[in-house]
Automatic annotation (TrEMBL):
Its cofactor is Mg(2+). Its EC number is 2.5.1.21. This is Squalene synthase. It comes from Ramazzottius varieornatus (Water bear). SUPFAM superfamilies: Terpenoid synthases (SSF48576). It is found in: Membrane. Pathway: Terpene metabolism; lanosterol biosynthesis; lanosterol from farnesyl diphosphate: step 1/3. InterPro entries: Isoprenoid_synthase_dom_sf, Squ/phyt_synthse, Squal_synth-like, Squalene/phytoene_synthase_CS, Trans_IPPS_euk-type, Trans_IPPS_HH. One of its GO terms (biological process) is farnesyl diphosphate metabolic process. One of its GO terms (molecular function) is squalene synthase [NAD(P)H] activity. The keyword Membrane applies. Belongs to the phytoene/squalene synthase family. The lineage of its organism: Eukaryota, Metazoa, Ecdysozoa, Tardigrada, Eutardigrada. It catalyses: presqualene diphosphate + NADH + H(+) = squalene + diphosphate + NAD(+); presqualene diphosphate + NADPH + H(+) = squalene + diphosphate + NADP(+); 2 (2E,6E)-farnesyl diphosphate = presqualene diphosphate + diphosphate; 2 (2E,6E)-farnesyl diphosphate + NADH + H(+) = squalene + 2 diphosphate + NAD(+).
């Protein structure tokens, strides 16, 4: 099925076949789970079961960082499972979120009352916390502080009930994903694999998270709305519908898509920061770990932009596309090339009458600035624009020639001066 979906994209077919036969060398590791401490092994199993998108890239990190990031992921996944669980009463939930980081040091603590799909990380939290306590003090401090700040931010937003302004949208995304970008950057530095600047420039690290989280929120609109989870900022949707739910109504589709385009425009404004951040990374495993999710995000945004399907189902990128990107997220040059490709593809889809059309183009141009290019469509289906122009002229000329020659011989002869016409056999 994956192969069929990629049929119009030959380069994806190759990547898929390679992936299916020899596996993915970018994220494959010679990880020996059998030799590992049984509790750490269970943690890797929880990671595998709770994350499709981050498991492979975390496993491919260099040794020390791999354990730290795996535990960091599980701790925050546990916290997020509390946030997402609609069966826990608001007061109980907020109290738990605010004190959750303290549970890291409570031997044997776990939480058995969640109904969420990822509840295994709460049911088995005593195992995760005991592995946490084996990490270096520097790692423990980073993870615990990040968990404390995220829990308090989540509780704050649960009490507010709505994400009102665009500023609040950035704030919410900072708590749930920007803090992860900041925490991860500190872990990279603490492990000695990256330069101090990566950890101290929190604005860029925050943008890494915002780009991923906004993409998730944009993509999951339909699924979240039917479950009564509202993450699109009111300031944006109020211009296009009476309520967030009304954006799902087919009769409002034109407005809904305009709203979608506005939020995609907001998200792509993080691209320059993302590229600057990635450009500073030195370690290959850290680079792949950071770049792959960002590439998936831009491909997802490209698929979502101006696409009414976002309001009907969960829009996904093709497996072939994902595999191709994983294989191509290994250097900043390749990443920029892919980013350009997706930005240009969005640029081609900007509707002339979209009220954010010029803002979208400006944002895309900033994303492309690293190459110094303006958003001008130079090619279509990979054929240079000039080639298409001359090709069309030739084709039209040929068609006209055929038409005149076969269908209208008399029409043709009417253009021919009389004295020449006599010599033509058919013109009598
Ligand atoms: C480099 C590499 C990975 C990065 C990064 C920089 C910067 C930020 C992030 C990863 C975090 C990205 C979050 C985007 C996915 N969103 C969610 O999972 C939502 O929950 C957010 C709170 C929990 C965050 C847990 C997390 C995620 C990825 C990690 C990590 C921790 C630790 C280490 C590595 C990666 C979302 O989940 C529901 C869903 O998407 O189904 C939500 O509830 O809103
Ligand atoms: Mg959540």
């Amino acid at each position: 099925m994956d192969l069929v979906k990629s049929l119009p994209h030959p380069e994806e077919i190759l990547a898929l076949l390679k992936f299916k036969t020899i596996g993915c060398s970018t994220v494959n590791t010679k990880l020996n789970l059998k030799k590992m401490d049984p509790d750490m092994r269970r943690c890797f199993e929880y990671l595998k079961m709770t994350s499709r998108s981050f498991c492979a890239v975390i496993m491919a990190l260099d040794e020390d960082l791999r354990y730290g990031v795996c535990i960091y992921y599980l701790v925050l996944r546990a916290l997020d499972t509390v946030e997402d669980d609609m069966t826990i009463a608001l007061d109980t939930k907020c109290a738990l979120l605010e004190t959750f980081y303290q549970k890291l040091n409570v031997v044997g603590w776990n939480f058995n009352n969640s109904k969420e799909k990822d509840r295994m990380v709460l049911d088995n939290f005593q195992i995760i916390s005991s592995e946490f306590r084996k990490l270096s003090p520097a790692f423990q401090q980073i993870i615990s502080g990040s968990c404390r700040d995220m829990g308090s931010g989540m509780a704050q937003f649960l009490k507010r009930k709505v994400i009102d302004s665009m500023t609040e949208w950035d704030e919410y995304c900072h708590y749930v994903a920007g803090l992860v970008g900041i925490g991860l950057s500190r872990l990279f530095v603490a492990s000695g694999l990256e330069e101090p600047i990566v950890g101290s420039d929190e604005r860029l690290a925050n943008s890494m998270g915002l780009f991923l989280q906004k993409t998730n929120i944009i993509r999951d609109f339909q699924e979240d709305t039917v479950q009564d989870r509202l993450f699109w900022p009111r300031e944006a949707w109020i211009k296009y519908g009476a309520s967030q739910k009304s954006l799902l109504s087919p009769s409002n589709m034109h407005n809904s898509v305009a709203c979608l385009n506005e939020l995609v425009t907001n998200a792509i404004q993080h691209i320059p920061d993302v590229l600057t951040y990635l450009g500073r990374l030195k370690n290959q495993s850290v680079f792949n770990f950071c770049a792959i999710p960002q590439m998936m995000a831009i491909a997802t945004l490209e698929r979502c932009y101006n696409n009414p399907d976002v309001f009907r189902m969960n829009v996904k990128i093709r497996k072939g596309e994902a595999v191709l990107m994983i294989g191509n997220s290994t250097s900043i040059e390749l990443v920029k090339e892919f980013m350009d490709k997706y930005c240009l593809s969005i640029a081609r889809k900007v509707p002339e009458n979209d009220r954010n059309a010029s803002a979208t183009r400006v944002a895309l141009q900033a994303g492309l600035r690293n190459k110094g290019g303006a958003v001008v469509v130079h090619s279509f289906l990979g054929i240079p624009r000039d080639g298409i122009f001359y090709g069309l002229i030739l084709l039209m000329g040929w068609k006209y020639y055929l038409w005149i020659k076969d269908v209208k011989p008399t029409f043709l002869s009417s253009f021919i001066p009389r004295r020449w016409a006599y010599s033509l056999p058919d013109s009598r």
